[in-house]
Q: What sequence folds into this?
């Protein structure tokens, strides 16, 4: 990544400014800080920034309103929103307003660096993630088949499940991400001109993810490159096959998802899948 990337930090809390600067001190970025949405908008009208890090809850113009105005005045500017009071409604609005990503406070140094560098490295189209329908308990989206987009959406959906216990949250997030990566990489051939359709539904008793990719589907009988096809006697046989085919290391997606999901249902063609996770507290 080229040095000298410019970041505008927007937060009314001086402690957050100090914390973010300390966490990013070893990164080659120039950080400029302001303490309100109004100040941020003035800065953005005067000059361009590679990334905006903005708190959501601020006096006057809040971060989500700022996000909307940024895309009106400076379309293409990437914005990561941060909040100590995350709610599903805020996550949905952030997706709707085309935030690049979403971080709940407190966040770790590693999480901040990973998110910032992913944003700075990414070439983002305005329609990488398009909202078809959005409310906190039902979200339908279409995505360009880009692996980086899968990581972004996985983080948004992880925030939607912030009320779950850490283990349950991690397992359902991992399962969804693996399915989405498979849909983009294999169904959509990682072709940005292709689209994957995703729906998330949250009820009192379960979480449901539905994914449909543009591919020709598959049969479980014809997946020699996937770990799910290995025999107990040869638990890593698929790795050799992937190497022969020139496919990247991996192939554990379906196997992992089966272990983490309560139900996993594929269509007859194989290009549609539904993941169901039952909630322990229901």
A:
């Amino acid at each position: 990544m080229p040095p000298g990337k410019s970041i505008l930090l927007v937060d009314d809390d001086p402690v957050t400014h100090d914390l973010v600067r300390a966490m990013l001190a070893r990164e080659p970025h120039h950080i400029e800080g302001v303490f309100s949405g109004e100040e941020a908008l003035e800065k953005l009208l005067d000059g361009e920034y590679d990334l905006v890090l903005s708190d959501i809850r601020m006096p006057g113009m809040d971060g989500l309103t700022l996000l909307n105005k940024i895309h009106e005045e400076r379309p293409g500017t990437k914005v990561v929103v941060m909040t100590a009071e995350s709610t599903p409604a805020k996550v949905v609005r952030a997706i709707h307003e085309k935030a690049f990503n979403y971080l709940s406070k407190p966040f770790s140094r590693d999480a901040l660096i990973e998110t910032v560098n992913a944003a700075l490295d990414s070439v983002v189209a305005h329609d990488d993630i398009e909202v078809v329908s959005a409310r906190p308990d039902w979200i339908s989206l279409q995505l360009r088949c880009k692996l980086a987009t899968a990581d972004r959406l996985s983080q948004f959906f992880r925030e939607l499940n912030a009320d779950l216990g850490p283990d349950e949250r991690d397992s359902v997030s991992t399962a969804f991400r693996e399915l989405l990566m498979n849909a983009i990489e294999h169904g959509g051939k990682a072709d940005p001109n292709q689209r994957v359709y995703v729906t998330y539904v949250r009820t009192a008793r379960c979480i449901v993810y539905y994914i449909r990719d543009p591919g020709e589907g598959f049969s479980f009988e014809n997946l020699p490159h996937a770990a799910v096809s290995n025999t107990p006697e040869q638990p890593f046989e698929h790795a050799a096959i992937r190497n022969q085919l020139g496919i990247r290391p991996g192939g554990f997606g379906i196997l992992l998802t089966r272990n983490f999901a309560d139900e996993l249902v594929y269509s007859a063609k194989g290009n549609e899948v539904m993941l169901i996770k039952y909630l322990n507290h229901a």
Summary: Residues 126-282 form a domain with the Heat Shock Protein 90 fold (CATH 3.30.565.10). The chain has two domains: 1-124, 126-282.
